[in-house]
Amino acid sequence: MNILSERLLRALVVRMDIHIHMLLTSISCLFFITLPQSLSQPPSVFNYSACKEWPYNCGTLSGIFYPFWGENRPPHCGGGEAFRLSCHDDITTILIASHNLMVKNIHDTTRTMRVVPTDLDPNVCSLQSKNIYDDIHAKATHFLYPNPSLYSNNICEGFETPHSFSSSLVFSSSFSNLQNQMILQISFHYNKPQLCIITTILFLATTVLSSNPKFEACSPRSCGTGPPIKYPFWIPYEQEPFCGYPHFGITCMDKNPILRTSNYEFLVKDIYYSNSSFTVANIDVYEDKCPVPLYNYTFDQTPFTYSSENWNLSFFYNCSTEPIDYPTYEVDCAKNATHFSFAVFHKEALEHKNYSLNECQFMVNTPLNINESVNISSLLRMNYTEILKMGFVLNWTAPDCHYCEKSGGRCGFDGNQFLCFCKDKSYLKSCGSDPRKLRLIIGVVSGVVGALGMGIIGFLCYRRKKNRYAISYIQSRSLSSDPSSKDTEKGVQSFTQSFVPGVPLFLYDELEEATNYFDSSKELGEGGFGTVYFGKLRDGRSVAVKRLYENNFKRVAQFMNEIKILAKLVHPNLVKLYGCTSRHSRELLLVYEYIPNGTVADHLHGQRSKPGKLPWHIRMKIAVETASALNFLHHKDVIHRDVKTNNILLDSDFCVKVADFGLSRLFPDHVTHVSTAPQGTPGYVDPEYHQCYQLTKQSDVYSFGVVLVELISSLPAVDITRHRHEINLSNMAINKIHNQALHELVDPTLGFESDFKVRKMINAVAELAFQCLQSSKEMRPSMEEVVETLKDIQSDGKHKSQPEVMDITSTADDVVLLKDDPPPPSPDSNAVSKSTTPNASG
């Protein structure tokens, strides 16, 4: 392959800034072009019926819009001689700065045209190309590239050309193929002339209706069938930068909205303006039949962050072995005869199958947002490319637009500050929010009304507060007893007709005020599908306000599900629901009782943890009350699905309140399991659930087994600083118990070595945890059996007669792990069962 052909592989991308014609340009165009031509040309020349067919075709190109013209279209259908196309069967050309160029494509939305010199000679390296670039830069008025200094010796020896190329192009020895494949191309942004008469009329009409041109300039846009695009997003080349927020520019390419950030290109699939998030997918998964994710996405120094509802699809490359009996997605184009590459959900579950992650050379995590409507069986049959096309959710940070839009304005960002563009002018927050006008009104009212006015205002404020609290605490009895009551607001009537009776209704404004407008300093933590904030109601009650992440159909369904569950569940160890907002509210909010003493996780290994602060009898009480709450849920056919110490709250008396039903599912009576997308918290998830995505009550039992081990050890469920075989606490506990080394697991502050009664109880709880953590759900006890066992341990055998549990830390030569015969006792208890003499040496 000759040097010329290799160098021709480098694509030349040239860009220019778009010039925007304002009113003066339109008026000049109208009077100095249209009017003289109309006086000098016969009427037949201006037969505009010839221009009505847009777009039109020319040669090999189709879908051509103004300002281009040619073929059978008269000159007045285009933007002038500079935009004339010569149409032939196999080629479309344009004359720019005396150079005849072949037009490969025209993108109207980005105003970009790609051309190829028609007279390239594969055997001669002339200065023709150099002349093209210089002439266009010096002479062309409509076609420019921004920086003629971007040169490099790429095509011929002795001169330079503007360039932009990829080092991964496949070489070809055929010059004609290079030309046909558009290898040598110049990409120009063209300056689109105004449609003079129409532009002027439209501009004058909008000027009459609105004195603020930025209001019209920032009207919402669309790109193909994609979501509506408005602040903080904007479309370069179609809108001015002040219509959006920095770093939020979306390019419309082939009717697809594309976001470029952190050196990645993403297809924008959906935008959720109500909660500042959007779904994107890497465009590589649409362009490559076998995409190979090689990097973890990072969004540092951008306004974007991962949503907590994303799940990871982990890609493992160059592995010496494949996992056995675990569902994987093969990456065929990244494997060979000796090494494998695959993708899996929940990589931590591989270790449950004794698969070492060290078998692979490197790993990449790709975020995913699995739609709840996806059938799991079909998900498992998909290839990973189809799954990657589902995309993932990003949250964004930008000044809030709600109040501006509510006042009829359009949001923007100009001069390093947020602005609300209204029809009359621009404001700082919302239309009509001029602080000078407000101060003037306040001054006039204060001067005229005086003391009497202040008294009236005080009285009205008192009445308003009283009335709003009354509305926020309407009970279902008063709502349903007289549905035609004129005293009930229409919104409340609509709410009660489609919502769950028995749940108090709160106004959104009251909860917004209670949380100081959802101040981040009020944030208590992340719950299932939502963030929880501390709030103070007007009646003085302290509450926890759960703000759901998305106000779309999926989240409304989840919101309804949680309300249906909590409305009928009353138990002393379940968190109490105070009320909620209407599902027609701006956001979906749940209001719970506030539990002030943190979570069990806080006290075991979090911010509140102190040696000796949580003695064993308190931990035993926590275990019994948590199990009682879960047993109550199971009797109501409800699976919690996210049992963990972070969801077990403690009041000031260390009484348990099980929280976060955001992942709950009603358990139908006619089936034995519920299939659903992979969810839950790493370290607590049932390993059998990873294999078949079948959720049963025994999934909660497994998670509770992890909680029991946390109570014994004061260690977190997952800790990547531990040995790789002990990252998951469940693995660590099973290994310690199996190797008769329970004492290495127990928190030394509990008195395990010094207090025989504590030692005996911890041994029994560890035995129960061992049974709960069995990989097969059939081997685990029911939650009812767990409660009975814990109560018996707590009462020292007085609750129910049971054989004495011996010290499982003792040494026995005949200990074996029973895997096949239920129920599965720990190895140590198996040894005890063969002895009738208590082991007092432990």
TrEMBL record:
Keywords, ordered alphabetically: ATP-binding, Glycoprotein, Kinase, Membrane, Nucleotide-binding, Receptor, Serine/threonine-protein kinase, Signal, Transferase, Transmembrane, Transmembrane helix
Gene Ontology cellular component terms for the protein in this record: plasma membrane
A GO molecular-function annotation: protein serine kinase activity
Residues annotated as binding ATP: K546
Signal sequence coordinates: none
Its membrane topology: Single-pass membrane protein
Protein's cellular compartments: Membrane
E.C. number: 2.7.11.1
Gene3D superfamilies assigned to the protein according to its UniProt record, in alphabetical order: Phosphorylase Kinase, domain 1, Transferase(Phosphotransferase) domain 1
UniProt-annotated stretches for the region Disordered: 794-842
InterPro entries the record matches: Kinase-like_dom_sf, Prot_kinase_dom, Protein_kinase_ATP_BS, Ser-Thr/Tyr_kinase_cat_dom, Ser/Thr_kinase_AS, WAK_assoc_C, WAK_GUB
Protein name in the entry: non-specific serine/threonine protein kinase
